[in-house]
Input
Amino acid sequence: MTSSTIDRILDAAEVEFAAHGFVETSLRTITSKAKVNLAAVNYHFGSKKGLIQAVTDRFLGPLTKNLQTQLSAYEMALTETQGDEQELQVLLGILARSCQQVAQQNHHSLAVFARLINTAYSQSQGHLRKHLTKQYGASFMYFMKLLRRHMPPMTHEQFFWRFHYLLGILVFSISSSEALLAICEREYASSRSLDQIMADIVPVMASAAQASIIGDS
Amino acid sequence: MTSSTIDRILDAAEVEFAAHGFVETSLRTITSKAKVNLAAVNYHFGSKKGLIQAVTDRFLGPLTKNLQTQLSAYEMALTETQGDEQELQVLLGILARSCQQVAQQNHHSLAVFARLINTAYSQSQGHLRKHLTKQYGASFMYFMKLLRRHMPPMTHEQFFWRFHYLLGILVFSISSSEALLAICEREYASSRSLDQIMADIVPVMASAAQASIIGDS
DNA sequence: TATTGTTTAAAACGAACGTTTAAAACTACC
DNA sequence: GGTAGTTTTAAACGTTCGTTTTAAACAATA
Output
């Protein structure tokens, strides 16, 4: 209760970052929406960069934890070995649902998270990407290892790229979801939800993961 | 020759936009790299927004033209009807090669183009996306129509989303290519090129396009 | 050559940004 | 109740940005 200031800043920052990006969102609009003094951001987070990192950590921390437990449960449960297609869908479904669960439990915006990953990777010089890989890279290695079991044989390098192709489906769609959902509603009079999108994406990712390698590297 | 100023600005802007994004790139660095006076941007392009639009039009104009001719040739050549998988690869290969050709012929950066599309869609309120769809949307409808012929039966809405899933593979990978290529070189001592990435992506996109619909909308 | 229209040049403007500062307000503990 | 530590407040700082302005340089025409 003492420092609801911090939470209010994080909540407002998340919303604004999701709507307008990191650079185009000023600390003044964040602190204004949070009903908090401007200096509070620098006092509690050190800098704007620190705030951005805090917003990401507030999502990625629970996400990696959630993902880890669900993947452990997946490995424990010795199910009948199905086809690779099904296994891939199960694994990617775990990832998708993990994102959704963490987002819902902590009242986070999935879009801002996707946007964050997107901008983190787009900036070749981005310090954020390095922070993310340093901090959470290991946690995702486990997932990637499980995933690779059911994918066509390929080199580490090829898998690296393939994984990012799959990531692109997720990240681009979710980070563009606001615009796409609006278009969809106007064009097709549809009221589709992000949850449906997440469910739709899983088999598409699984299919993309299974595409066989052509030529050699 | 009289206005090489315009071209020098466009060239420099493209490079800087690709490297640091649109918001983080100042007109001062652009005009400095272009060896042009600061005021030249506002004189020739009206505003920074006008410059961004000019950079995109310089790519999308030739691209749509190139794509149109190649697709017409594709439709004219009455080849033996192959499987959907092959046809999809042909069509998506045309798109990929069209992007590469236009980029190479006009000395454009594929990365900045992908980044542009990425940010255009990420900003739900973005005027750039509306400009792009208004200006070039019709040209891409034709491509989408051809593509859909060889995809599983689905509603217009489902196809809309599926198409953007495929787009995500392309856009995310290319706009992150700078960072990913650097990681790849450091981690796997590989000197992969963007051209190879583009070729790799095609069958993955084709596979994603073919994933069958589950459940109903 | 004089004139007109176009392009470049240098300088400044006003606004918005992240950050810092210094005092005030608040909290908790002795 | 006074005191030490923490948080909040209001104001200002210095920078950088996109844009504008005014004049100079240039180009083309008659």
In short: Chain B touches chain A through 61 residues (CB under 8 Å). The radius of gyration of chain B is 19 Å. Residues 14 and 112 of chain B are 7 Å apart (CA to CA). The mean pLDDT of chain B is 90.
